[in-house]
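Recap quiz, item 2
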Amino acid sequence: MKPRSRRGGGRPTIADVARKAGVGAITVSRALREPDRVSPELRAQITKAVEALGYVPDRNARALASARADVIGVLVPSLTNNVFAEVVRGIYDGLGDTHLQIQLGNTHYSGLEEERLLQVFLSQKPSALIVSGIDQTPTARALLESAGCPIVQIMEIGPDPVDMMIGFSHFDGGKAVTRHMIDAGYRKIGFIGARMDPRSQRRLAGYRAAVEEAGMFDVRLITTTTSPSSVSLGRELFRDALAKVPTLDAVFCNNDDLALGVLFECNRAALSVPAKIGIAGFNDLDMMHVAFPSITSVRTPRYEIGRQAIAMARAAISGDHPKQRVIDTGFELQARESTAR
Amino acid sequence: MKPRSRRGGGRPTIADVARKAGVGAITVSRALREPDRVSPELRAQITKAVEALGYVPDRNARALASARADVIGVLVPSLTNNVFAEVVRGIYDGLGDTHLQIQLGNTHYSGLEEERLLQVFLSQKPSALIVSGIDQTPTARALLESAGCPIVQIMEIGPDPVDMMIGFSHFDGGKAVTRHMIDAGYRKIGFIGARMDPRSQRRLAGYRAAVEEAGMFDVRLITTTTSPSSVSLGRELFRDALAKVPTLDAVFCNNDDLALGVLFECNRAALSVPAKIGIAGFNDLDMMHVAFPSITSVRTPRYEIGRQAIAMARAAISGDHPKQRVIDTGFELQARESTAR
DNA sequence: CTGACAATTGGTAGCGCTACCATTCCTTGC
DNA sequence: GCAAGGAATGGTAGCGCTACCAATTGTCAG
């Protein structure tokens, strides 16, 4: 039976290249993937044929035949959150000019959605997976453990990596800023938090540890919501906090958006910063040092985490798993005008 | 010869499901893709078998056999730019619970990189492509035209769509804010722009048209850079602008980040806003209405554009191309305190 | 000079799925 | 009663590529 008319739309296949170059199809395949294993003469011929025909390998066929797709799955909880946007940028930049592709998934901070996406991703047999955080559901964890490819957990570190891990301690970060505010002389330090995902929870725990050590803990100082974070939400939460505890003299915000909202509200209500109210954020977005007054924050190496996560994944894919499986990037307290009492 | 041991890692295949359900493989395939064409009894049996085995179809095999991947390629110039982050969020949300997947590509505002990514994407035979803007290189345009799948150009509209288009006129947006500032009584209105991609260029052209009509044009009022936008850059450009034209009494910023930087600098330099300096941004991020004073901006329907782009793509994939190929979403001027002289 | 072994190349047989066509069994209409 | 047409199901033959093994040639130690 004659071959059916090309379903693929007539793009040249590896067989076309092989014919043109006068070699076997498998040699073309090898020349493309492991050039060292083909003699220079044939390699040159093949390269010429590839260019003449405008041949581009079919990724789907390749993935099917080799049971491995040149895809790295990346799961993040949010795409609009600046922090993850930068992680993703780092990931793309870390790719260099490999043939690898990124498959992004947005879990919307949902464990169930993470499980679903993991299923979808695994159905492509990815070369590696990068997931955010260390709080996977048991099902998700099991999927990861049986994935049969390198796994990198990012943004946070913990005692029990699935495979590899890179991030820092949110608890320590929260504790460090809070201590800084205590040292600056603030006595009624509130905590304002949005979203309250696991990492925010641990920042809160760090805050709590610091104020408890100083004998300044009071539940009414804590104002949180599960709504997504935004600048306007920062303003609202600050109003609530002030209504609950009128003697409030400082706030540590879960993240920089909220801190900015607090600053604007202080400006509007003529509460001077840092004299009357101290403000600290988390992540240290660019705007924090530009704000007037500039805002204290905790610098987190988001872009670097993305880059390194890919570097680790690539190393593991090419066979040499880094000996150091858990990397603590640390963080950096940036003390600024907003807490300089 | 006996079948080689499973390369794929032992996941069940469609043949396993077929055996378990006591039907042909092709019937399983149909039950999964076009349930209506299989009798209810068999469908139930098959569903049971699928669940019992935990069968998940292999996307690569499916794509190879049908010469079509369930993938929509999306090309955006930046992932950290808030605006595109929201477009992407809209795109993901517009997916609903289809089996479609998104393949994101970041062109870094480069036409060459766009061409390269287009090649990569096309090698997967995507179901549709979404690209940003209307300024593709001739090569990219040719690739799109011969892609053989629906194409949606987003964020901007123009006279000559490759296929479909959704966005708004950046020229009109720039002209509208500028006119608003003129009407508010400002006389030395500067333009501050970062990145200066084609859309920024057209906002600048809108600005220019408005000031020229009012007889207020002066090249020295324009301060731009090709560096990527940021809050701190807004501050720097504003300083430069003020140094060039000390009588400057207002600035229209290319985008909201810059506007925020300008506001902070005015605060720091004790230039009262809006009395001494008027400020307007573009895009209307959440923080604009929270800022103190709140900042005038142009609201752009980024999230909606993402959603609708997917809706258009899905319609076209299922065969009914929308009759209206170009959708102008418009924009909305948000006049606020920062220009209320 | 011979056998062992590496380097290079090619053939065969799928990877897991679906397009296409064939088959079977019903309905219809006349 | 019978041909024509439709609905449901299945078989066969690939999609374009690579894993695996075989074949060929050249190289070198003994």
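The mean pLDDT of chain B is 94.
Chain B touches chain A through 52 residues (CB under 8 Å).
End of item.
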